[in-house]
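Appendix B. One record, verbatim.
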Amino acid sequence: MKHFIFTFITMTAGATAMAQTTPVLPEGMEILTPEGVTMTTNDTRSFDMAKNIVVAGSKAKGYKTYFTAKDDTHGEELWVTDGTVTGTKMVKDIYPGAVSSNVSYITRFNDKVVFSATGNEENGQELWISDGTEEGTYMLMDINILGGSNPQGFVQVNEHQFIFSAIDLESTVYGESEQHWLYVSDGTEEGTRMIMDCDVKYPGTNVNNDKTHFVRVGRKVFFKADTKDGDYTEALWITDGTPEGTKMLKDINTTIADETTGATASSRIDWLTNFENKKAFFTAYSPEYGQEPWVSDGTPEGTYMVKDCQEGLDNNGLPRGSGAFTPVPMNGLMYFRGYDPIYGMELFRTDFTAEGTTMVADLNKVPNASGTNDGNPDLLCVYDGVLFMKAQSGVNAAYDFCKGIEMFYTDGTTEGTVMQSDLNPGTGSCAAWEGMVVSGSMYFRGQDETPMAGGSQFWELFRIDNKDEFPKKVVDLGAGADFVHTLRNMNGDLYFTSKIDPRLFKYSYRKDGYDPAKDLDEMDPVFDEEGAGVNAIEAVANGSDVEIVYNGSYLQFVTSAEILDVTVFDVAGRVVMRANDGKNTLHVGSAGLVNGLYIVKVATSAGSAAKQIVVK
């Protein structure tokens, strides 16, 4: 019998689920989960949290939403919905009976999900996969034959593989403590193998990131790890899913942490963010400069500190370092919260050069001895051509511009950076988080009043239909704090849950003037990276019965299958044309394409095909 330790939840048959009453819902909103079923989704802002809501699927096969929930009979298990009440169900009682299977780290893998779960006492916490059906949900591999492998850190690295970390028999006994080593899988047992025996750090030393702890850029994944012998504590690594393509990029913190072994200290990597599938932006600690913004193109020589934003030493003789927070790319630049010696923590942008790293705007103009107070912007998302954020405008009632923490947006210029609304009147905080664009509208959780003493946030659901519209409260789920969280987009509908009512809500809404050509949501990941367009698209198998004909003016698709999507890429892998109207022709002569080589990818109900064309 295996020997291991795992955490589970038990619920007796006589246990009573949380009393649930149906709130007054707006038109287009419904509750999908059955009565007596409680979602167990974490309320953190991370997209790769242990208990998550995950959308998986494809245009050809459709989409499903996966989550964890519990009831009196089965404990906590994997659930799925196709967007209907009748199609919302427990996928499988993975650990039979009222014992929880501890489904964790659900992650999209094309039209399936992968996760860790405990199916029985013999196997422990292991690697599982599901297509949303009971028969299609099974343990993918028993990685650790003497205990649970506790897989985590799942990231899809290309169209056919995902990487993750796991404990195996050898890593359990290697060194002074068990280690998670790096694995890759194509979704089959024979295609699941260890890439490298490096000690993967998930989530890592610094965990301020509210998005993901590892990040894919193109067809590579940046992650945090150490050698199995502990040479670096935590450094920046990269993998393409192969042993030869897995390496440590840079030991940023070269401070000696152990005089005996010579091991260096943690680089304290955080805020790993994908910049246009070209680079990874992040923060890291170096002994010369402290915590500052860094960037990497995936090579050691292309991994460097962007700028020493806060120069000098603190009272302890250590480099000050200010870091960079909530980075979001827009229009070829990376925006983030950074430090200015006069204006404090304010809105910055960078082109990844020191001279090109500048403050965009001073959001909090309340004066102090050295300049002005911190605006502390937290960037949300790009919507309607601008970047939205919440920021502190000030709480001093002597200044008319002090409205507390409210919503701002920027077009990238100082004059184009403005307060969007004073949602919580006076100097109260709107506390906006989780900005998400769905079907041409932007949603966020926030508040239009301040909780009474002892409360923290109300966090109700709000919506805007254009960048200058005052936010509308979508729903109030109950008295007190709704704490709406984990906003997700499936097929252009908004899915979410809340603390006050932990059920799955679906909101179907299309604004006035909704334009599918502009507002239709892209649900599928993009793996192409700059310079890899031709090879990436040529790798698409001609798996559908479709012939792509090009006559110099238009494309014709000869097939008996349904045309789902047509995409035209340039040689850098950038999308230059797209159509999903189901037509068997696409006119390219009037599209303004410059002369050159392009790749046409066609997705049909029977598969995908690709073809190179030359525009003259």
